[in-house]
Amino acid sequence: MTLLIVAAACIGLFVARPGSADACEVLVVKSVELKPYQDVVRGLTDTSTCAVRELRLRDKEGIEKILQRPADVVVALGTTAFRKVKTIKNFPVVYAMVMPTETALSLPPNISGVSMTVSPEASLSAIREVFPQAKRIGLIYDPKHTAEFVEEAARAARAAGFELVVRQAHNPSEVPGSVDSLRDRMDVFWMLPDPTVVTVETIEYLLRFSFQYNVPVFSFSKKYVEMGAVAALDLDLYGMGVQAGEIASVLAKGGTVPVRSYARKAHFLINAKVAAKMGLEIQDEVMKKVKNLE
């Protein structure tokens, strides 16, 4: 079952777009063909009030190929495609499936999109449901990647009655020491999609630490729940496409949208076997919301 997250949808300023004709076209630009991208495109196509066209940009191809036949709105699907199309200035660009580090900094006024994260409030609500006794949440981040998110998370944690215990790591080699420093200071560890903190080596260390000291991990991906995290909110890719389609449709008709929007919809995942090994009792009403791991 999918957990529908009504997130605090926007950060920053709202942006206005020029009007367009009643008939409109959305161009989806991608660099590769992947199943996750297909899910996003399906949601976008089902939702958009404009015609949807797809274009694959090869490695050496640039925005000249887009400008040969411009659309009302360009949707960049994936980080590689976004890096190419973000130089476009004269019509709206919407991003989806783009690494948060690429969109964390200030963006030109014609760019908006859907984040690959749910809101801090949504994650904290899920943590409360899975770990109702938890008071202290440990978190490690690299300021150059996720500082803005962590600032918002700190405010949301205080409002929700949590103590957020934060450590910074400026390179992956600092992560193990930061994890160790949190050992007696946290009831649960909140894993963020921060590329400095989440590497093959650091995940292995963190999950080993989790089992050794009985500190559960709350993550952002099914992959890590399968590896040993207790729970996660895993993005619903079709739902991300729906959001991107809504944004593109508004922009094509001259409307306004948030510069950044958190993903609204995610799957609530729990590794029941890991929870049991840690002596955690998950309430029946919580398990009813959980999507089974395949």
Quick synopsis:
This protein has 294 residues and is of the alpha/beta class. Helices cover 37% and strands 23% of the residues. It has 12 helices and 14 strands.
Describe the structure.
The protein contains 12 helices and 14 strands. With 294 residues, it is an alpha/beta fold. The protein folds into 2 domains: 140 residues, Response regulator (Rossmann fold, 3-Layer(aba) Sandwich); 135 residues, 3-Layer(aba) Sandwich (Rossmann fold), CATH 3.40.50.2300. The strands form 2 sheets. Strands 1-14-12-11-10-8-9 form a 7-stranded mixed sheet, sandwiched between helices. It is elongated. The N terminus is likely disordered.
Range of strand content: 15-25%
CATH class of the largest domain: Alpha Beta
> What is the CATH architecture annotation of the largest domain?
3-Layer(aba) Sandwich
Radius of gyration based on Cα positions:
20 Å
> How far is the first residue's CA from the last residue's CA?
13 Å
Strand order of the largest sheet: 1-14-12-11-10-8-9
Low-pLDDT parts are: 1-21
Envelope shape: elongated
Order of helices and strands: EEEHEHEHEHEHEHEHEHEHEHEEHH
Q: Quote the average pLDDT.
A: 89
Structural class: alpha/beta
